[in-house]
């Protein structure tokens, strides 16, 4: 039996492929590229089931219809599957399934995690109780969203720029260097200071997990992080998949 594990973000989609109970392959796509490849992926891997975590309802609805037409049984977090974590948000229905899955996965993989930071389209900082419950957190524009806004709103800046930062500290000596250093160091300092602040306000011994597509950009300069796991959500979907197979005998 094989599964598709699909993490749908605002910018990219991550696909995990499980064959004979093992996670064999992980790929990252833009949504248009994924839809182009989907027929050949289904033909090649012949999945029987799909487990989805999505923050883009229109995309997941379209994908569900395609997969069902191809004969797959489709399960989605927040619909057919409840993420097994105590949700202590004031309005639990408002929390993105990706945030709940990140916290659930961090709790499953590591001990004493108090904070999960996700560097995606948005930068989210999610706080975990001592008993592993989801408490809430903070949301900021993500690194590339900030970059996009900066370039689009400032007339004299280039309209496209690849972030490039190779040293632990460097002020820019060109416009491109100034932007790269400002964005990357700025976010590293923001995250480092937030971790320091949270440890003062809560408890100093909790562990911090960082994930998301841009996590590796900051790996060498952000302070206070215990675990970098860019593919946390795919690992989480695989953990959920195993739980579903055990409990539902499917």
Q: How far is the N terminus from the C terminus? A: 10 Å
How would you characterize the largest beta sheet?
A: 5 strands, mixed
Helicity level? 25-40%
Percent strand equals: 15-25%
**Mean of residue pLDDT?**
93
pLDDT < 50 runs, ≥5 residues: none
Description:
The chain folds into 2 domains: 2-81, 2-Layer Sandwich (Nucleotidyltransferase, domain 5); 92-234, ATPase, nucleotide binding domain (Nucleotidyltransferase, domain 5, 2-Layer Sandwich). The model has no long low-confidence stretch (mean pLDDT 93). Helix 3 (97-109) crosses helix 6 (232-248). The chain is α/β, with parallel strands linked by helices and 250 residues long. It has a 5-stranded mixed sheet with strand order 3-2-1-4-5, with helices on both faces. The chain has helices at residues 31-45, 57-69, 97-109, 143-153, 175-201, 232-248; strands spanning 2-8, 13-19, 22-29, 49-54, 73-76, 113-119, 122-128, 134-141, 207-211, 227-228. The chain is built from 6 helices and 10 strands. Strand 1 and strand 2 (13-19) form a beta hairpin.
List the helices and strands and how they pair.
Elements: E1 2-8, E2 13-19, E3 22-29, H1 31-45, E4 49-54, H2 57-69, E5 73-76, H3 97-109, E6 113-119, E7 122-128, E8 134-141, H4 143-153, H5 175-201, E9 207-211, E10 227-228, H6 232-248
Parallel strand pairs: 1-4, 4-5, 6-9, 9-10
Antiparallel strand pairs: 1-2, 2-3, 6-7, 7-8
